[in-house]
Amino acid sequence: MKIFKFGGASVKDAEAVKNVAKIVGQFQQGKLMIVVSAMGKTTNALEGIVNSYIASKEDLPSRVSDLKRYHNNIIKELFNEVPTTLTEDLEKIFGYLEKRISIVANQSFDLIYDQIVPVGELLSTKIISAYLNFADVKNTWLDARKIILTDGSFRKANVDWELTQFTIDGLEWENEIFVTQGFIGGTKGNFMTTLGREGSDYTGAILANCLNAKSLTIWKDVEGVLNADPKFFNNTEKLDQISFKEAIELAYYGASVIHPKTIKPLQNKNIPLYVKSFVNPAEEGTKISEDFSKDGLIPCFIFKTNQCLVSFSTKDFSFVAEEQISELFQALHKFGFEVTAMQNSAINFSVNTTFIEEKLKLLIEELKEKYSVKYNSNLDLMTIRHYNEDIIKELTKGRKVLLQQRSRNTVKLIMS
Ligand code: ASP
Ligand code: MG
């Protein structure tokens, strides 16, 4: 079995869906699992529907009809005659959505979110499965909610690996080609769950792991894993080959090519990951595997804006020792901060994190008795893997560096 994952951009309109069918036709040999995200910006649109529903806004019906129109237009372009089963399937999904948003919204936001947002992937996979069948790529539609089993941590569900493996082992895999949803799962109690935004890559990796797949290929609108985000840098270079370790480090520091959780399930079973362009599918792309022989040949840059350096000082001049650090981290964890750098001195401890003002206020309130908390916002965090002095000089030119940390391979610069 091989796994192909197609993201939202690769199925954003009828042309794109036809291209997916072409790629599958061209590259499929043997068993194939196709994991698909919601079409285009559908997940954002569904988030809009959730918010409007919860706040009882008047624009709710028009948001739903926009979603319908968008999908219907794609179908009209794909088929001369829309298969009745597809029409019925889509009516069922939209019927579910309309019923779900007609009841009183009295459950938690996260639970409601997860009962609505997965509609995007249900719609996209029904359409793509039907179109592939029509294009003579015979396939079986699978319901990820019955396969990827999770706990009930809505919006960031944790996979129940044992149960998921057990379910997968119990299924018949006689057919050749399967189509299923990325990003979504289900609980034992039949609630829908989601794995976190952009989680379809992770679905691909979970399935690869449990099916002992030969490889996972993520088809993207870029040529592969680049050494920097073209939004911020000119002259980016494609990395032909990197190791799992390099990939997980890049993803951890915020390179947005692959979802950070994707690497572990693949590494654990030594399953290679290919990142390839759906625009130029014949090009090589990037191979991510155990092989580390090409790591470090090209410096990699990861740039994050809207950063904030928070420093905590003990008010009574106690040392910031293990006890205080654990107290600080408990508070950071409680309010959901992700710490990307830290530093300590005698009575001071600083962390770098993404700036979210409301959360920061709560954190300061929580700690104000023992600590005075100060922060600098509007900062950038630049992480460079495989740096050299010239690169650092060039990137810090004319900027104030508030914190610099170096290890052998990585330098982190927090700059205003
Ligand atoms: N459709 C989901 C999202 O946009 C999952 C994904 O695309 O990976 O976040
Ligand atoms: Mg997406």
Strand and helix layout:
Elements: E1 2-6, H1 14-27, E2 32-36, H2 42-54, H3 60-78, H4 84-100, H5 109-116, H6 119-134, E3 140-141, H7 161-170, E4 177-181, E5 184-186, E6 192-194, H8 200-211, E7 215-220, E8 241-243, H9 244-252, H10 263-268, E9 273-277, E10 286-289, E11 300-314, H11 322-334, E12 341-344, E13 348-354, H12 357-367, E14 371-385, H13 389-396, E15 401-406, E16 410-415
Parallel strand pairs: 1-2, 1-7, 2-4, 3-4, 7-9, 8-10
Antiparallel strand pairs: 5-6, 9-10, 11-13, 11-14, 12-13, 14-16, 15-16
Helix pairs in contact: 1-3, 2-3, 2-5, 4-6
The chain binds aspartic acid and magnesium ion (MG).
Short summary:
The chain has 416 residues and is of the alpha/beta class. The protein has helices spanning 14-27, 42-54, 60-78, 84-100, 109-116, 119-134, 161-170, 200-211, 244-252, 263-268, 322-334, 357-367, 389-396; strands at 2-6, 32-36, 140-141, 177-181, 184-186, 192-194, 215-220, 241-243, 273-277, 286-289, 300-314, 341-344, 348-354, 371-385, 401-406, 410-415.
How does this structure look, described?
There is one protein chain. By secondary structure, the protein is α/β, with parallel strands linked by helices. It folds into 2 domains: 2-220, 3-Layer(aba) Sandwich (Carbamate kinase); 300-415, 2-Layer Sandwich (VC0802-like), CATH 3.30.2130. The chain is 38% helix and 23% strand. The chain is built from 13 helices and 16 strands. The protein has helices at residues 14-27, 42-54, 60-78, 84-100, 109-116, 119-134, 161-170, 200-211, 244-252, 263-268, 322-334, 357-367, 389-396, and strands at residues 2-6, 32-36, 140-141, 177-181, 184-186, 192-194, 215-220, 241-243, 273-277, 286-289, 300-314, 341-344, 348-354, 371-385, 401-406, 410-415. The strands form 3 sheets. Strands 3-4-2-1-7-9-10-8 form an 8-stranded mixed sheet, with helices on both faces. The protein has a 6-stranded antiparallel sheet with strand order 12-13-11-14-16-15, with no helix packed on it. A hairpin with a 3-residue loop joins β15 (401-406) and β16 (410-415). The chain is globular and about 75 Å long. The mean pLDDT is 95. The site of aspartic acid has 12 residues, from loops.
